[in-house]
Amino acid sequence: MINAEQLKDYFPFNKINPDFYSLLLTQFHPFEARKGDVISENGQALNQTLYLTRGVVYITTESGREKTLKSKSLSAKYPIIDAQKSTGARIQAASKEVTGFAINARLLEHFQVWNRCHSEAPLDSPLRNHKDYQWVLGLLNSRTVQMIPQGNVAELFSVLERVEVRQDDELMSEGEAGDFCYIIVEGEAGVFKCQSEGEQQVATLSNGDLFGESALVSNEPRDASVRMLSHGILMRLPGEVFRKLLKAHVVRWITAEKALQKIANGATLIDVREAEEYQQLGIKGSLNIPLPELRQRSRQLNPDAPIITGSNMGSRCAAAAYTLANMGFDVYALQGGISGLMRHLERA
Fold this sequence. Notes:
The chain is an alpha+beta fold. It contains twelve helices and 20 strands.
C-alpha cells in the first residue's frame, strides 16, 4: 500500500497540503490483479479514481482509444483514467502482477477545494486550528455534499461557523423550527425522541456527523432533540445557506407524466403522508411510509429501483427525497403531489 512519502509523487496529491495525507490515506482502497483480469469494464460508472503502483495495464476508453500504462512511467503518477471526464473504460491487467489504489472520485475532487479554502483562510478562520480534521472527511463523504457541484463547495466552507459547546447543551429541540444544521468536530451528541415511555435516546452522533438538515428541507418542526453528551466543537451552517447550496442540488423533482413512466418501468411510489391521509386518498400500488418513519422502514425499499416520493405538500416529499438520497437511493420528488398524479391518471 502507498505511504505518505510516496503520495507526494502522485497528482493531484502533490498539490495538497501533506498535513492532510494521513486523512486521505484512510480513504484509499488497494486493489490487486493478475494478468488478464479486468479491473474495470467499459460502460461501468467510474466513481473511483484509480492509480497504478505496480505492473502494466491495458486501457480501452469509451471512444475506442487504446493505450498501455506502465507503473514505472511518469504517466502512472496520474489517474489511470479521469473519472470526471469519462463514463467508463475497460482496464485490464497486462502483467503478471498489478497493484494500485483507488479513492472516491467526488471526495478527491471536493477535497482539493477544501485544501484551497484552508490554505487561503486567515489564521483566525473557523477552518483552522482544529485538533484534527476528521470532520472534513465526514462532511465531504456525506452523500448530500457529494451531490453538490465542485463550484459550490468553497461557498459551503466559507459560511461555516465554529461553535464551542458543553456537555448537556441542547442543540435542537423536538417540535421547534429548524434554523441551522451542524457537523460535529469534537465530542459526542445524543439524539432523543419523545415516546410513550418518555424521552429515549435513539442514536449517537460523533466526529464528522452532519445532522439537523431534515427540518431545513421540509420546513417542518424538528422531529427529534439533540443534546451534547460531552464538551465539544461544532461547525454550524445557517438554514438559508443550506437550502441554497445543498437542497437545490440534492432534491430532484419529477412531473406526474414522467413519474408514471418510471413507475411503469419498475419505480416505487412512496406516499409519505400520514396513514389517515393515505386512507382517504391513496393510489393503488403505492407504498405508504409516513415521513417520520422513513429512516426506520427504509429496509422495505428496493435499493436497485428508482423511488418517487409523493405527498400533498412539496415540503414533505422533498424532505423524504432528501433523506433517501442521503441514504444512497435513486429518488425523485413528485411535482403537484398525490392529487396531481391522480388527476393525470384520470386524464390518461
